[in-house]
Request: fold
Amino acid sequence: MNSLDLLLAGFEAALTPTNLLWLLIGCLLGTLVGILPGLGPPATIAILLPLATGFEPATGLIMMAGIYYGAKYGGSTTSILLNIPGESASVVTCIDGYEMAKQGRAGPALGIAAIGSFVAGTIGVIGLTFLAPVVADLAVDFGPPEYSALMVFALILVIMLAGDSILKGFIAMFGGLFLATIGTDLFSGQQRFTDGRIELAGGVEFIALSVGVFAVGEVLINIEKENQTQIFQVPRGIRNLLPSWSDLMKSRLAVLQGSVVGFFIGILPGAGSTVASFVSYILAKRISKTPDEFGKGSIEGVAAPEAANNSETGGAMIPLLTLGIPGSGTGAVLLGALVIYGLNPGPLLFTDNPDVVWPIIASMYLGNVALLVMNLPMVPLFAKLLKTPYKVMYPGILLISVVGVYSVNFAIFDVWLLVVFGLLGYVMKKLDIPPAPLVLAFVLEPIAENAVRQSLLLSDNSPVIYLERPISAVLLGLATLLMLSLAFGRSRNVRKQVIEIDN
Amino acid sequence: MSTLMRLSTGLAVATAMATLAACGSGSDTADDETPTKTEVVTHNAVGGGSDVFTRQIIKVMSDNDVIDRQWPVRNVPAGDSIGAMSYMIEREGDANIIAQMTPTWIATPMTVEDASVSVDQLTPIAMLATEPQVVAVKAGSPYTSLADFIDAAKAAPGTLVQSGGSSTANDALTRLVLQDTSQAEWKFLSFEDTGSRITALLRGDADIMMGSASDFSELVRAGDLEVISIIGSEGLDIFPDAGTSDEQGVDTTNVPVQFRAIVGVPGMSEEAVSYYQDALSEMVETDDWKTLTTDAGLVTDYRPGDEFESYLSEQTTIIGDLLDRLGLRMDQ
Reply:
């Protein structure tokens, strides 16, 4: 049987009333936990595991997969409306999404996020259906030198996120790199910058950093402002609450590009949706006809990262289902669930248990449709939330932030971190230093540091290892080109900044 | 907008934060003698090895009517077992709180300066099983036994590579013992996740890896990996062809043993302890437990109470000495 026959058989198995019911419940729960920061898909699946282990494996896994990609749909909502990135992949969505909301275009932003997610999610599953065996090797081919090169490439892109001021981009990036070094060093077991605090042994909690710098910082800045009457404009009429035809046409390339980038980066364990989201954001800016709008409320700037984030799901399922290697935290939970069901995830899963694997894949097509149907009608409702007066809105944002951060580890320490990072976000706003490079560099640092140290251990400290391996050599070549274009393409700008600093 | 308005928003904000801060620190101190609503703590996030094992034994007990309801699992991953132990110690005397522990609970507090928690504060309930380390190589590797690998490492010191976890993880400590007793020397490549350790082996970046049986079983079945040795004296049914390190003439007496056990909060009543011991001793006799241990490469080693306590102190000495030599012992 070829993939298409197997998929059709999978649809047949997935389309039972029980499976569909649990798929919808999974998608709905996923959307809810995606909207709220903190309690993510792994925690939600954990709560439901005792229930789900009583189901047939296919049914339980269909529900859990629904939570997984449902959360990705929901993740954009708080980013756009409240500047709260609930997960690392939503950080980039905040940049243009929240700008759009401030300009009264929250509806189109939420709408394009849902539509882009649907298209990309479906493209990702198509990739999973037909390309899984072919591209699974990519997950094995990427070793420490390849990740090192990919991270060089990614960190340069992170600086580019800073917009016009490369210098401020550097400052933000180094801040993020530093914060990520706090914790226990993997290689020596030594504590770094933890001041002996057990709470910091596992590193700084990501949600405390991202929500602090983005959401709390934004609230603090706005409290200070004199004119409070209306920060958000909410247009009347349903027509203005959804993306227009021209919005869709403008975003189509960004969605397609994001889908492809997200799928391939998703295959690489560890890199995941965060890298996918901002790589596709920068690419979208490069190929856009209106790159100047990026950072100021560009609809393509929402479409591309949201697409990448959702097609990543399809890619990330490939190493999980073909090798038994989870690419992310949620992947690890799904893997655990497979083991509890007595199914052993590995290279033989597709041949030994087609009756489980193919219904899950089929359910992902159905889930994407369900989520689009569920999410689009919600868009006008969510967009109207912004009419809430600020004296309710700001305490509300802080409440969501505190509850979200606390619920990750049930640690009060993380709430204090949130306060500290909120102040940091405020200061950065005052100095006009962009928060996105800081938060993204924080996510990339461990991958980059580990990969570089692993590579040098393998090569006995010879950097030649990066050029000996073809994938890393090509990536480093690309990074060099990018660096050159950055240096010369903006030389005037950089020089101007340097002069300004001298004065 | 008036200053008053801004002030009130600020106040509301401060109150919201303070209220929440207060909510978190409260803990219920039930002093029940008998368990009524048991909760099992694990130091892993959902999906981690200990988390999955904990859920598996709860399922076995519930499927076999040893317990009448599924006990919920409480994941406290902060501080790699330190958070979980703090959670237990804060709930002193509570008959409902037990935990599934591994040797990480012994090792981690030793690596932290002034750690306020340690395993000997907890109440030992029972040890369930040991999890012998399995040594794997890529299919077609020149090494067919652990002894082969050690000989090769001796011939070319510092060139061969073992992929594994952090420097204080069991596989890293095992390498230390083996290098010491054999005078061989090889590199240790740390990865945060098991998946990356395995792909390093498949890619050829690493020559050898030590892990639990479940890490390798499917890739062995698919013909991608081979198991060349099982550390210790007992073989595993899941890898019938693999010899033990004892058979291969490798001395592993001082290698710390990976085990899985159940402990209670400090000062747990004898009544509660025997309640859990009854349930667990019944569980290890079920067929589902036997299937679980065979598939996961575990060896049943049921030791209740005092027997477990003396085993714990034995392992504590072994691990403590090793960490001391690594220069990672901070608690003394």
Remarks:
- Chain A has a mean pLDDT of 87.
- Chain A has one domain: 3-140+206-420.
- The two ends of chain A are 72 Å apart (CA to CA).
